[in-house]
Amino acid sequence: MLYLKPIACSLTGLILFTLGIEILSKPVAAGEPIIDKNCQYHERTQEIVKKIPPQSRGTVYWTSSFDVNNQKYILQVLKFPNSRSVFCLWQPQKLIPQRLVQAQLIQDRLIEKVEKDSSQKANYIVTVRGEKNENILRTSYRLNLTNPNQPKVTPIIAVYKR
Fold first, then answer.
1. Interatomic CA distance for residues 5 and 12, integer angstroms
2. pLDDT category, 86, cuts 50, 70, 90?
3. DSSP string covering 83-152, please?
4. pLDDT tens, 38-68?
5. DSSP letter at 6?
6. Is the CB of residue 118 less than 8 Å from the CB of residue 124?
7. Partners of 114 in the β-ladder
8. Three-state SS for 67?
């Protein structure tokens, strides 16, 4: 009987070691989902990691919710490794975010600041840094989402370089 205890411990250790190897060898990379430039979330698998290069993976930079016609929406700004940003709109009932296609003035730009416009419902003030080859230092825009299917972007003020 005395010799059965070491054998049982050895077998238990071998089983745990085998399970550990099996778990660690699964082809899935753990972590947050990968978000692409079209605002689509992807489960982090080795296939997706190979398919979407690091420079095309965004991280959530800013999130805000608002209501229009008794429906809740979420505006999300993604930031990419090149410091460019993409604006995404979520309608929680649909669970699929959409890139704000009609907002080209602020898409794929260097966003310095986004804030809710407290004076107007479903409006945001977006400050965009100018490009190196432009004479504009920064521009502020109003993003109007009172009709989320047709967002409007209008320039408010531009600050020029000397």
1. 11
2. very high
3. S-EEEEEE-TTT---EE-TT-TTTTTBEEEEEEE-TTSTTEEEEEEEPPTTSSEEEEEEEEE-SSTTS-E
4. 999 999 999 999 999 999 999 999 999 999 9
5. H
6. no
7. 126
8. strand
Strand partners, 139: 128, 158
Q: Closest by alpha carbon to 83, among 57, 105, 111, 107?
A: 111
Which amino acid is residue 31, in one-letter code?
A: G
Listed residue (110, 115, 156) closest to 130, CA to CA? 110
How far CA 135 is from CA of 38, 84, 130, 157, in Å, comes to 30, 19, 8, 14
CA 5 to chain centre: 54
Q: Indicate the pTM of the whole model.
A: 0.77
Name the residue with tokens 């079209």: 38
Instruction: Report residue 26 as tokens.
Output: 């699964």
